[in-house]
Design brief:
Glutaredoxin, alpha/beta, 2 domains, two-stranded antiparallel ribbon, 8 helices, five-stranded mixed β-sheet, 219 residues
């Protein structure tokens, strides 16, 4: 029986290359493409509309058949109340059909939008075909943390399960993103108090935004 220590170097380098395979511009500071795909209700949704002005967790998943995806999404479903409380969006894209997508979503108790990439648009555009599974033809799983504007803050390659972000990883990344994008992160700043008392409140996220937008239905 072959072990990892006896596999040919060329084979190992191929596997490592698959782990790293994603379009070169999909890196911190880059902008994730604004794909428009059908959701679990068969309604076409654009990523930028789903994100709005909030941070977003974007999961590119193999699909309903993958036990690793199930475990990751069970963890995310348990974490979801904190995600929502923190004014953060989450979206899953899988290569499932609409029917399979709904089974996947229901089986993990997810409350967020799932998008179907049954035509492999994302898989091909990002060059993340998982060629080791030709029967399912999924994409190599990735998790992205996105700033507003679909700007990439961090990404995780989930071909191997331990490459996926833990809840602690997500919390750290979302703290860093929120600190960067919310001007009222530190309420001790005198300028924030002056802004508040002036009645402007431009710098106070929730109080400013509640008057100018309706948060979209997550389900």
């Amino acid at each position: 029986m072959l072990s990892a220590f006896s596999l040919p170097d060329t084979f190992l380098s191929t596997l490592r290359g698959q782990e790293d395979a994603v379009r070169a511009d999909m890196a911190p500071g880059g902008t994730f493409p604004d794909y428009e795909l059908p959701d679990h209700r068969a309604t076409r949704r654009r990523l930028s509309d789903l994100q709005g002005i909030d941070p977003m967790i974007l999961v590119l998943a193999r699909g309903h058949f993958c036990p690793k995806d199930h475990q990751q999404h069970l963890d995310l479903a348990a974490f979801y109340p904190k995600i929502a409380t923190g004014y953060t969006k989450i979206v899953t894209i899988a290569t499932d059909s609409i029917f399979e997508l709904n089974d996947f979503r229901a089986s993990v108790g997810a409350q967020w939008v799932f998008l179907s990439d049954a035509d492999r648009v994302v898989q091909k555009d990002l060059d993340i075909q998982e060629y080791t599974d030709p029967s399912n033809d999924p994409m190599i799983p990735h998790t992205f943390i996105l700033k507003p504007g679909l700007v990439i803050h961090s990404l995780y390659n989930g071909y191997w399960y331990w490459g996926r972000p833990s809840i602690a990883d997500l919390w750290r990344d979302l703290r860093d993103v929120t600190r960067e994008i919310r001007p009222d992160w530190d309420l001790s700043d005198p300028g924030l108090e002056r802004n508040w008392r002036s009645g402007d409140r431009e710098l106070h996220y929730a109080y400013h935004e509640m008057d100018i937008r309706q948060r979209p239905d997550e389900t």
